[in-house]
Design brief:
This protein is of the alpha+beta class. The chain has three domains: about 1-40, no CATH class; about 40-170, no CATH class; about 170-368, no CATH class. The protein contains twelve helices and ten strands. The strands form three sheets. Strands 1, 2, 3, 4 and 5 form a five-stranded mixed sheet that branches. Strand 7 (about 250-255) and strand 8 (about 260) form a beta hairpin. The protein is globular, with a radius of gyration of 23 Å.
């Protein structure tokens, strides 16, 4: 190639690169739609548009699974699925601490997921079948599981996929996982810890952990396009009309700063509770947090973090204990001593209003 041609080619490449950078800067500065697929982490509208463009977000993408049994809708995440999770973590500000990747240890774990789904009551699986398109296995997602709603032209999302983190569960039994999770909002440099029991010793295995987690996520899936709560985080664009959501009115109101619980005046720690990437609360806050919790109608501390988790925790704890007759016990430990025990709130009156709504939602009779 002649020197003049080389210089010309180099000049064209530089110009093209400058155009890319210019487009990135303009789109980021003005919050315009992403032209080349680039967004700043602070530009939530841009990130949301990229997520909505993902093939994984389309209900059409998953229609081939719709005729399969739920136990046969379990797959490993492909490249598009991983990219969507990465965008989601950027959207929530967790992109540094968690960079999702494909699952490497699929086969033995997949079999456990299949067993966990098989043991869910048939009546409940019948309700799930139209809304849960697939369970997708990934790793390093930043949480145990994530439910992502699917876009469908001309209507509100009415279906979803669940991403399950293989690495978060691979070497944990049910009680190990539940105890680990329940301690994540707190520093570990003190005398206190939380001990969770969601499986009796003879059933304390990974399958039980997976099933409990799936039930929580299934709660999210079933709430889509219902009067339980609005679409996740839609309040950022359209404030909810609380009168339309009887479940949320039991514990929440909405102001110009977002959702506030009805108990915040007497439960100020609630706003600082953050799971998985938490540890924002000192270790000595553990007894106080749970002492305050039992004065509310939140089923769990995780349920107190948002209206969406409130519902999912109501769903999983009720199905787990009342429908499937399994154990749920939370103990506050100081060293080796139990200083406080919290049974699931279905055993007393503090969650009575939520009990009634859930029964109606599931079509349960008086026998449970």
């Amino acid at each position: 190639m002649k020197e003049a041609d080389v210089m010309k080619t180099t000049g064209i490449m530089k110009m093209a690169m400058m155009m890319v950078i210019w487009s990135m800067n303009i789109s980021q500065a003005l919050a315009l739609p992403p032209i080349f697929g680039f967004c700043r982490d602070s530009d939530k509208d841009c990130l949301q548009e990229l997520m909505d463009r993902s093939p994984t977000k389309s209900k059409r993408h998953w229609r081939k699974f719709a005729q399969k049994n739920l136990e046969d809708r379990i797959i490993a995440a492909d490249g598009d699925g991983v990219k969507l999770l990465q965008l989601l973590n950027r959207f929530y500000g967790d992109s540094v601490r968690a960079i999702p990747s494909p699952a490497e240890r699929v086969n033995p774990f997949l079999n456990d997921v299949r067993k966990a789904m098989t043991d869910i009551p048939p009546a409940l699986k019948a309700k799930i079948k139209k809304k849960l398109m697939a369970i997708v296995l990934a790793e390093k997602t930043g949480s145990t599981a994530t439910t992502i709603d699917l876009l469908h032209s001309g209507s509100s999302p009415d279906a979803a996929v669940i991403f399950l983190d293989v690495g978060a569960l691979y070497d944990k039994t049910a009680n190990q996982w539940a105890s680990w999770k329940e301690n994540t909002p707190f520093a570990t440099d003190g005398a206190y810890k939380v001990k969770m029991t969601i499986a009796e010793p003879s059933y304390d295995n990974r399958i039980q952990a997976i099933q409990y987690i799936l039930l929580h996520e299934i709660g999210h899936v079933l709430a889509l396009n219902t009067s339980i709560h609005p679409l996740w985080f839609s309040e950022k664009k359209s404030p909810p009309q609380m009168a339309d959501y009887p479940f949320m009115k039991l514990s929440w109101n909405y102001t110009n700063v977002g959702y506030q619980s009805l108990f915040d005046q007497n439960f100020p720690l609630r706003k600082d509770v953050r799971y998985y990437f938490g540890k924002d609360l000192p270790n000595e806050a553990i007894p106080k947090a749970y002492a305050n919790l039992v004065k509310t109608n939140f089923v769990t501390l995780y349920g107190a973090t948002s209206p969406y988790e409130d519902w999912a925790e109501v769903f999983v704890t009720y199905v787990h204990t009342k429908v499937m007759n399994k154990v749920f016990r939370l103990e506050i430990m100081q060293g080796d001593q139990v200083i406080q025990t919290l049974p699931v709130c279905w055993e007393n009156d503090r969650c009575q209003g939520k009990d009634q709504i859930l029964r109606e939602f599931l079509g349960l009779g008086d026998e449970l």
